[in-house]
Each structure stands twice: as C-alpha cells, then as structure tokens.
Amino acid sequence: MAVINAQVSELIRSLRKKGWTTSVIAKHLATTGIRASLRTIQRHCLCAVVGKKKGRKPRKLTSQVMEIIDSILRADDELPARKVKELLQSRHNITIGLHSVRKAVRTLGWNFGKPR
Asked: What is the DSSP string of 34-64?
C-alpha cells in the first residue's frame, strides 16, 4: 500500500463529490499506480460527503413549553415529574421525555425530591 499524500487525498474527495463509488475510485487509482484499500478511500471520502450530515432536531423544550410547565406547577407544586409529563401529553399534546421535564423543572427553580 502506498502512502496517500495531499494531492491523492484531494483527488479522492473530488471523485467522491462527483458521485463515484469507493470501488470505482480504487480501480481508478490502481490504473494510475496508486494502490489504496477500500477502507483508506472511505476514510478520505468522509471529508468529502456533502449533504449527508444530519442536522440537529429542533429543541422540544422551548420557552412556550417551559411556561406551560411553570403554569402546571403553579397550580399544584407537589406534582411528580411523571405526572407533569402526562399532563403535557394529555392537555397540550406535547410529547417530551421525562428527563427533559425534570431538567425544565430544575431550571425553573421548582424542586423535586425528598427534603434532606
């Protein structure tokens, strides 16, 4: 196996951007006298993939949801987090995780748990 220099790496990336598959790139490099494994080509192609990155999902814990949680807890501050989560789902049709509810309650200043 040959060492892949910056020029060859850039060639691999440009061929990948054109839509060439890994095996076709390997064959093309072999014709030019550069022997590279498929894994090596894949590693160099990772930088060239455009549009394959997954964007982050929008936050479910928005300011409106925080206000709703605050209003629920103002009505009854003894509600457990699981009950707050169920009320969010039933009354407001908001699906949110229990961990997120607990984090929101902590952020708002309400305290769950046993007194020490």
From this structure: ----HHHHHHHHTTT--S-SPPPPPPSS-HH
